[in-house]
Design goal:
By secondary structure, the protein is of the alpha/beta class. It contains 5 helices and 7 strands, in the order E-H-E-H-E-H-E-E-E-H-E-H. Helix content is about 30%, strand content about 15%. The protein has a 7-stranded mixed beta sheet with strand order 6-5-4-1-2-3-7, with helices on both faces. Strand 2, helix 2 and strand 3 form a beta-alpha-beta unit.
Length: about 170
């Protein structure tokens, strides 16, 4: 199964992904690099990312959008003199075999309180091939998440496994 997220912190979703992984399925996760950046203070996402990686999900990728979006703004007639504008990984999808959920909701606790919509698609063989090809492009362009780096980032913010009972004992990594 494949999950792409801009933001995510849903414990139930992470636990299901780990369950699917423990049943022998390949799990792939792509997350926006800036929103879940290991140097930011977004510890709710970091702890879920840590749970995935330390739980054996090997294909967790932090993905960036287009590095410099100024040309897109200029092409649309906007003044874009400020530097630092960059695209994001904004997919909010979940694919299991040939079923694809596409929607506006982030995979977060707060999104359950929003007005959101999602669509479940049954992909044809051609649609599935196109979806897999796009997933490959995005995941191969990102940075693979490492459990030690995530753990160090959490510790630098004063967050330990004891802070979250669901992290305690979740990894053999120190």
């Amino acid at each position: 199964c494949v999950l792409f997220a801009y933001t995510f912190d849903r414990t139930q979703l992470v636990n299901k992904l780990l369950e699917v992984k423990s049943n022998g399925a390949k799990v792939r996760v792509g997350i926006d690099c800036e929103r879940c950046n290991l140097s930011t203070s977004n510890f709710l996402q970091k702890r879920q990312l840590y749970k995935l990686v330390s739980g054996g999900v090997e294909d967790v990728t932090l993905i960036r959008g287009v590095p410099d979006v100024r040309e897109e703004y200029r092409a649309d007639g906007h003044d874009c003199s400020s530097a630092g504008l960059q695209g994001i990984q904004h997919w909010k999808t979940f694919r299991l075999r040939n079923y694809l959920v596409v929607g506006s909701a982030n995979w977060t606790t707060s999104s359950r309180c929003n007005v959101e919509t999602s669509v479940l698609l049954c992909l044809s063989e051609q649609g599935l091939a196109a979806c897999r090809a796009r997933e490959e492009v995005h995941c191969n362009s990102g940075i693979k998440a490492e459990a030690l780096e995530i753990k160090a980032s959490l510790r630098s913010k004063g967050i330990t496994e004891e802070s979250f009972p669901d992290l305690a004992g979740s990894s053999q990594v120190d």
